[in-house]
Amino acid sequence: MSSELDEAIDLLDKAKTFAKEYMSKYDASHDYRHVERVVELAYKIEAEEQKRNPSLLFNHLIIALASLLHDVGDKKYLKPGEDPSAMVRNVLIGFGADEKLAQDVQTVINHVSYSSEIKDPSIVLQRIKEHPELAIVQDADRLDAIGAVGIARCFGYTTAAGRGPLDEGIVHFHEKLVKLESMMKTPTGASMARARTERVKTFIEWWNEENGANTSP
Known about the structure:
Blueprint: H1 2-23, H2 32-52, H3 60-69, H4 87-94, H5 99-110, H6 114-119, H7 121-130, H8 133-143, H9 147-160, H10 167-175, H11 187-211
Helix pairs in contact: 1-3, 2-3, 2-8, 3-5, 3-8, 4-5, 8-11, 9-10, 9-11
Pfam families: HD (PF01966)
Domain HD/PDEase: 27-155
Protein name: HD/PDEase domain-containing protein
């Protein structure tokens, strides 16, 4: 058992170092601090869900690794020739991870994003049945997209990506951010999302008031 624990700690240390270096080329909306917040949120959701229902079984190592590496291969920052569907798996195997663990983490990561769920919600729900850790990591990532931090990240990405005026950020609020609460997969995530979504809605009201016009679609 001690050997397994040591191996897990070593793998996590290597994953943290890799993630910190990999995310250093991203803008502030998807930097390593975002990763740290997602990890913190995932641990909190996992703990609350297990407290709520002790019969729930989660693989903590999968949650930890998938939270750390969930933005590796993000299509918004992908380099030509990179295959995002296997990047994390290959990295973990290179770090000495068991092949099944590496593939399980990759599967979770491949289904975390909002865009993947919009394309086919049924596939995501099926993957959650097979990998309940996905619900934890996905909720954690979405929580960091709303609330005060989410507002800052949205404007940060709008600016970094050169998407035009700040109004484009508000459009994104309507198109995605206010919808995330209804897409949370855990009771804990849904409860945390409620308060953060109200902050986003309040900000939209302030924005419209100060701009003298309603920028909703």
